[in-house]
Specification:
Blueprint lengths: L5 H11 L4 H8 L3 H9 L9 H8 L3 H4 L8 H17 L2 H14 L4 H12 L8 H21 L3 H17 L3 H8 L12 H11 L3 H28 L5 H17 L2 H4 L1 H17 L3 H17 L15 H7 L10 H13 L11 H15 L1
Helix pairs in contact: 1-3, 2-3, 6-8, 8-9, 8-10, 9-10, 10-11, 12-13, 13-14, 13-16, 16-17, 17-20, 19-20
């Protein structure tokens, strides 16, 4: 990220042209000492002198100030990783303050605002108090509303709308979620999605690889959404037990058929945990333990740092993942992710009835060790 340092720019431009401090001082009507203070960073030129200085060096005022209102994707990615790691070691308020300072500096960089919203969303549980958590949620919501109101990027605006809906859910503002999203539900009977048209156009143009990339990306996204939606169905209170068992069979079958574990293990972990909670709740400790054992195997087999990638069938996904703002990186730092994976089982009241069972104790030991690694 560029830092504003007018003095260094003035010194660099002046020296590159063989101009003395006195020459520059005479041109803009200040003393040589004033120019010297600018270049040493002891003071700044009066704002009314900036156009004159920029014209003298034949550069823009933004170049004179070394300022850009936008951050590059690489800079945003690096900042996200850095701040994500800081959440594991620093107080929440310290990291929150740094996020706020960066956002104010690049308030028109909407990809940055989006990533800072996601960063806070993934870490606001660390705020410490309900008031601080509420403040962070409001901050996220405000950034999302700005993106939706000001950004010309439709994809970014839709993403901001989804995150805004999450903040409403966290505040139990369920009617607001319905108002926000009810008109944005796609037609389930439409066979012609945007991606279908795009793939047909690519094929007609002889760009078969691009068509393949578009379709694989769509199928991958639909698969992950399918599994997540099944897990939501399982959690609906009062749902018929036979229906839930069938939902579980559907998701299990899709995970095995499409080898989702090699594509997105996090979706598999959420499914295993969701179904284990359901099974434990209806008294089926044996099947719940089998799922928790598989959950623990996956957690312990993860190669760090986490990175999403395609597989032998979804062989164009790597290109799509690399194009994402975070290139498939984990949304939180390694320590926080490990703690969350372990505590989702160890601290979960749904499994309290299995305390004392050898199989469950073995699982908690393995997960506790994961937190220590």
């Amino acid at each position: 990220m560029n830092e504003i340092n007018i003095g260094k720019i003035i010194s660099r431009e002046r020296k590159s042209r063989g101009v003395t401090q006195e020459d520059l001082a005479d041109f803009v009507g200040v003393s040589k000492a004033a120019v010297s203070k600018w270049e040493k960073g002891m003071s700044y030129p009066d704002v009314t002198l900036l156009p004159q200085l920029a014209a003298y060096f034949n550069i823009s005022i933004d170049d004179l100030m070394n300022y850009s209102p936008q951050m590059t994707t690489a800079d945003i990615r690096e900042l996200y990783r850095e701040l994500s790691d800081e959440f594991a070691d620093e107080e929440f308020d310290v990291v929150f303050k740094r996020i706020d300072e960066t956002v104010k500096k690049y308030y028109s960089c909407f990809p940055l605002l989006m990533q800072m919203s996601l960063l806070l969303l993934n870490h606001c549980n660390l705020a410490g108090t309900p008031d601080k958590t509420s403040e962070a949620i409001k901050y996220i919501a405000d950034m999302c509303r700005r993106i939706m109101a000001e950004s010309d990027d439709l994809k970014l605006s839709r993403q901001a709308g989804s995150v805004l809906a999450m903040t409403y859910m966290m505040e139990n503002r369920f009617s607001d979620v319905v108002d926000l999203l009810s008109d944005d539900v796609s037609d389930p009977f439409s066979a012609n999605s945007r991606t279908s048209y795009l793939a047909r156009a690519y094929t007609a143009l002889g760009k078969n690889e691009k068509a393949k990339e578009a379709l694989q990306g769509e199928i991958y996204t639909d698969l992950i959404c399918f599994i997540n939606d099944i897990d939501m169905l399982i959690c609906i209170p009062g749902e018929d037990e036979k229906r839930v068992d069938e939902y579980i069979r559907w998701a299990d079958g899709m995970i095995d058929l499409f080898k989702i574990r090699s594509l997105n293990f996090n979706s598999v972990l959420i499914h295993l945990l969701t179904t284990a909670v359901y099974l434990a709740g209806k008294g089926d400790a044996e099947d719940a333990l089998k799922r928790l054992d598989t959950y623990t195997d996956i957690c312990c087999d993860i190669k760090w740092p986490i990175s999403l990638h395609g597989n032998e069938y979804f062989d164009t996904l790597d290109k799509m993942i690399q194009s994402l703002d975070l290139s498939g990186d984990a949304p939180r730092g390694e320590k926080l992710v490990k703690d969350s994976m372990a505590d989702s089982v160890i601290m979960n009241p749904a499994f309290s009835g299995m305390t004392g069972m050898k199989e469950f104790e073995d699982i908690t030991v393995r997960l506790s060790k994961l937190k220590e690694d």
